[in-house]
Amino acid sequence: MVTYSMIAALSENHVIANDNGIPWDIPEDLEHYKRTVKGHLTVCGRKTYEVTPVVPGRESVVITGQEDYDTGSENAYVANSIEEAVTMVEDIADEEEVVQVIGGESIYSAFLDYADKMVLSHVHGEYEGDIKFPEFNEDNWIVEDQESHDR
């Protein structure tokens, strides 16, 4: 069975991006992100796909309302709805695969009910941003691992 894991870095006020960019610079977290998604199928929205750093060895399902959207990559597939994306994932992914949901805001919201796991980097401080990670009930989740860093 496919497992969905949502990965994001979010500030204390749940900001994940501002003006199509990340409002902080934490190289260690970017490396953590790349290590985590490398080799895994990812699911994301079109805007996230267009601004996310390329990770070699990664296939993507890109969700967009643009029916004629061309990803420009043979490793990226276009879905026009959440349901279509889930069906594609089931067709593409190995039975035991962990599929990484990488954003944006509406994609995270839509996949909260599908997610089995979240890999969240909590960035200290509040940031201005136009894209936020959705609110979720922390009581519904179990912290399996936690690290703290100076930055």
Short description:
This protein is of the alpha/beta class and 151 residues long. 23% of the residues lie in helices and 26% in strands. The relative contact order is 0.31.
Task: Explain this structure.
The protein has helices at 27-37, 46-51, 82-92, 105-111; strands at residues 3-11, 15-17, 42-45, 60-63, 76-79, 98-103, 117-123, 131-132. Helix 2 links the parallel strand 3 and strand 4 (60-63). The strands form two sheets. A six-stranded parallel β-sheet has the order 5-4-3-6-1-7, sandwiched between helices. Strands 2-8 form a two-stranded antiparallel sheet. It has four helices and eight strands; from the N terminus they run ββαβαββαβαββ. It is 23% helix and 26% strand. The radius of gyration is 15 Å and the shape is globular. The N and C termini lie far apart (36 Å). With 151 residues, the protein is of the alpha/beta class.
